[in-house]
């Protein structure tokens, strides 16, 4: 993913270095993820905010990523986490695991929350 921002080491800095008009959207997505999974690990991976399952490593740790591109917000999660929400996600789907949210339309925060909760549920059930 090519970001317009300089490399950063933490999510606070990532958000603070984004354009002013995008910062509230990034904060809203971050808040939604952290509310759904407060014990997740939060870091920067592939140059964007990353949330992982505590105590897991490698692929098993991956819950989701989000990032800002020139005119959109991108949200990544595992394809299996998207399956049950495909009808809602379809307008935003760009690859099997990436949703693109244009900045000129409201970000579907409820969909983000649903995807995160679905990921947690599938992970806990061992279906990821």
Portion in helices:
25-40%
Instruction: Indicate the CATH architecture.
Output: Alpha-Beta Complex
Question: What is the rounded distance between the termini?
Answer: 24 Å
**Which word captures the global form?**
globular
- CATH top level class name: Alpha Beta
Major β-sheet profile: 5 strands, antiparallel
Order of helices and strands: HHEEEEHHEH
Order of strands in the sheet with most strands: 1-2-3-4-5
Report the mean per-residue pLDDT as an integer. 90
What is the CATH fold-level name?
Aspartate Aminotransferase, domain 1
How many helix segments? 5
β-strand number? 5
Q: What is the radius of gyration computed over CA atoms, rounded to a whole number of angstroms?
A: 14 Å
Unreliable stretches (pLDDT < 50, length at least 5) are none
Q: Beta-strand level of the residues, as a percent range?
A: 15-25%
Q: How many structural domains are formed by the residues?
A: 1
Helix/strand structural class: alpha+beta
Question: Explain this structure to me?
Answer:
This protein has 128 residues and is an alpha+beta fold. It has a single domain (11-123), classed as Aspartate Aminotransferase, domain 1. It contains five helices and five strands. It has helices at 11-17, 23-36, 79-82, 86-89, 109-124, and strands spanning 41-45, 48-52, 62-69, 72-77, 98-102. A five-stranded antiparallel beta sheet has the order 1-2-3-4-5. The radius of gyration is 14 Å and the shape is globular. The two termini are 24 Å apart. 27% of the residues are buried. The mean pLDDT is 90.
């Amino acid at each position: 993913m090519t970001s317009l921002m300089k490399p950063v080491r933490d999510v606070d800095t990532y958000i603070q270095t984004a354009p002013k008009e995008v910062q509230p959207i990034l904060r809203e997505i971050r808040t939604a993820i952290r509310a759904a999974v407060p014990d997740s690990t939060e870091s920067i991976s592939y140059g964007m905010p990353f949330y992982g399952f505590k105590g897991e490593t490698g692929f098993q740790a991956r819950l989701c990523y989000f990032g800002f591109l020139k005119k959109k917000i991108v949200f990544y999660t595992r394809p299996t986490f998207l399956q049950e929400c495909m009808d809602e996600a379809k307008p935003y789907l760009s690859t099997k695991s990436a949703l693109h949210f244009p900045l000129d339309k409201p970000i579907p925060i409820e969909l983000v929350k649903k995807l995160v909760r679905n990921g947690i549920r599938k992970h806990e059930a061992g279906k990821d």
